[in-house]
Design a protein that fits this description.
about 180 residues; alpha+beta; 6 helices; binds FE2/S2 (inorganic) cluster
Length: about 180
């Protein structure tokens, strides 16, 4: 079947078999290998991408189902070489160990933050509960999402906020002090 999809802002036309999963379309046909396959059974979240801004597990979607829609993969987060705030956040907060879960974690976090700009730690943990980190780096992942929330809420052109201040604010929020 012929499909037309926007991938990271680029129009893509392709012939695909109806049985082809989106994750294999991205990785095997388009060589966008930042999207990982951890389980192939919609359990781990490593294959998470944005579909029209919504986080979906791409091993649970057929490529033909995204005809006419817009996909964002991790490769689309820094199109001009400037890291997305969520990428900065994972780097600043050391929210990676092996990094296998990172693309899915970041994309799920972006979708979450678009509707929850000032989340609690509990809300972040709930939102990311479908994304598994084999290295169990969850504490720093939660810090990173808080960091990104504050960076994304900062006024445009405002003074950059240091990671120490952001993490201290996150701790104050959590502790209610
Ligand atoms: S590979 Fe898709 S959820 Fe694990
Ligand atoms: S950092 Fe290794 S799986 Fe998450």
């Amino acid at each position: 079947m012929r499909i037309s999809v926007g991938i990271n802002g680029q129009p893509i036309d392709a012939d695909v078999e109806p049985r082809l999963l989106l994750v294999h379309f991205l990785r095997d046909i388009l060589a966008l290998t930042g999207t990982q396959i951890g389980c192939d059974t919609t359990s781990c979240g490593a294959c998470t991408v944005l579909l029209d801004g919504m986080a979906v597990k791409s091993c649970g979607v057929f490529a033909v189902q995204v005809d006419g829609r817009e996909i964002t993969t991790v490769e689309g987060l820094a199109p001009h070489g400037h890291l997305h705030p969520i990428q900065e956040a994972f780097k600043e907060c050391h929210a990676v160990q092996c990094g296998f879960c990172t693309a899915g974690m970041m994309l799920a976090s972006i979708a979450f933050l678009s509707h929850h700009p000032d989340p609690s730690d509990e809300e972040i943990r709930w939102a990311l509960s479908g994304n598994l980190c084999r290295c169990t780096g969850y504490a720093n992942i939660v810090k990173a999402v808080q960091w990104a929330a504050r960076r994304m809420a900062a006024p445009a052109g405002g003074a950059p906020t240091g990671v120490a201040a952001i993490l201290a604010a996150a701790t104050r929020d959590r502790d209610g002090s």
